[in-house]
Write a sequence for this structure.
């Protein structure tokens, strides 16, 4: 293989988030409409490597993917060792707006998956004027816990292995092996308690069932894409949002809960028509 | 199907390696028919069909025959691809001391799904 660099640039951004100094890792590629990508719980922005590397996307979109604080290469804030990490709807929304401000993005498109697919519903509800469009991947208004989250962070179970084990079945069974295991690797590398802390938002605090009807897609277009094999954010959950908001929804064949990382090629084939619609807005 | 698990697991060097720290006995129950599987250093060393009077095991996965048959298809139908998908739909119960199961989840998921590979042939 000839050595080569990918067209992705990675940098560390220093900024205040939620009133504290943070050092955030941000990757980007391309030019045009800013497309801010939000990763899943307990993972990081590497999930979007396929999108960042796809010239069909980056010729018209400036794709930006950042590791949330505590995730990937972004540090937790100083003093983190004294408390458990726990993501809330309020902090998650503020974080996205403050990152967008720090990067001076003018009405970006935000695309999030899983917890990111949930938070775009909150953004659509609370801050539609800040976004050109929103894309929810694996969006559901709520997900009930279906196992005891205490297993995810305890000293007698390897946190990385159990987190990867828990989410492994959410990858479509037809996903390519290399991409499946890379998706799991990201979970194995997550810091102790980070996945569990994100799930506080996903399974408790982020429940938006009572506000979905108030989302007005005329203020900010919303697009929904969900993998057919996702049993966490189910097709039914996504179609319910579509029915209640009028947002177009597509159930993606042969994909699961991590479409952008478990099979980037297959996912981008579903993403490109959505991006074309956004360009035409 | 359960009888084939030992041969399939023990022939898979990668899977045996993944389970090299596992030392437990667990149960698979199909309807009311239990089977005990002894695992040592990642190998399934003994498979004992019930019935039992006083079975000694760490954890049990319990589901109907119809559910197990779908789960063991080479490409299971939607909703039947993973143990947690079944648990979420209340089609499977995972009972007992879950520590060995959760601490070795990636190992046990592939052990329990091993018959999918047999049905492919």
């Amino acid at each position: 293989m000839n050595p080569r660099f990918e067209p992705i640039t990675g940098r560390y951004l220093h900024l205040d988030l939620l009133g504290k100094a943070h050092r955030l890792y941000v990757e980007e590629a391309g030019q045009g409409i800013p497309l801010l990508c939000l990763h899943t719980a307990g993972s990081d922005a590497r999930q979007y490597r396929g999108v960042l590397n796809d010239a069909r996307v980056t010729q018209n979109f400036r794709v930006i993917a950042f590791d949330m604080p505590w995730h990937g290469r972004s540090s937790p804030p100083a003093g983190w060792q004294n408390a458990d990490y726990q993501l809330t709807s309020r902090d998650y929304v503020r974080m996205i707006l403050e990152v967008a401000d720090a990067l001076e993005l003018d009405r970006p498109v935000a695309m999030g998956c899983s917890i990111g697919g949930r938070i775009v519903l909150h953004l659509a509800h609370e801050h539609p004027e800040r976004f050109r469009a929103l894309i929810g991947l694996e969006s559901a208004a709520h997900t009930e816990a279906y196992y005891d989250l205490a297993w995810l962070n305890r000293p007698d179970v390897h946190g990385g292995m159990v987190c990867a084990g828990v989410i492994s079945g959410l990858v479509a069974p037809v996903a390519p092996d290399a991409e499946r295991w890379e998706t799991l690797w990201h979970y194995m590398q997550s810091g102790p308690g980070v996945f569990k802390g994100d799930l506080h938002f996903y399974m408790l605090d982020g429940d938006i069932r009572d506000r979905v009807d108030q989302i007005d897609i005329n203020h900010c277009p919303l697009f929904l894409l969900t993998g057919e094999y996702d049993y966490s954010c189910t097709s039914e959950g996504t179609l319910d949002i579509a029915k209640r908001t009028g947002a177009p929804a597509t159930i993606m064949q042969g994909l699961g809960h991590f479409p952008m990382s478990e099979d980037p090629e297959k996912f981008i084939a579903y993403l490109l028509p959505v991006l074309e619609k956004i360009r035409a807005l | 199907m359960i009888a084939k698990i030992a041969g399939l697991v023990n022939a898979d060097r990668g899977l045996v390696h993944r389970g090299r720290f596992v030392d437990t006995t667990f149960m698979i129950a199909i309807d009311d028919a239990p089977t005990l599987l002894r695992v040592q250093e990642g190998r399934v060393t003994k498979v004992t069909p019930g019935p039992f009077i006083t079975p000694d095991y760490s954890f049990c996965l319990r589901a109907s025959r119809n559910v197990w048959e779908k789960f063991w298809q080479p490409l299971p139908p939607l909703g039947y691809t993973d143990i947690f998908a079944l648990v979420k739909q209340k089609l499977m119960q995972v009972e007992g001391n879950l520590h060995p199961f959760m601490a070795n989840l990636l190992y046990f998921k592939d052990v329990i799904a091993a018959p999918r590979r047999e049905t492919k042939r």
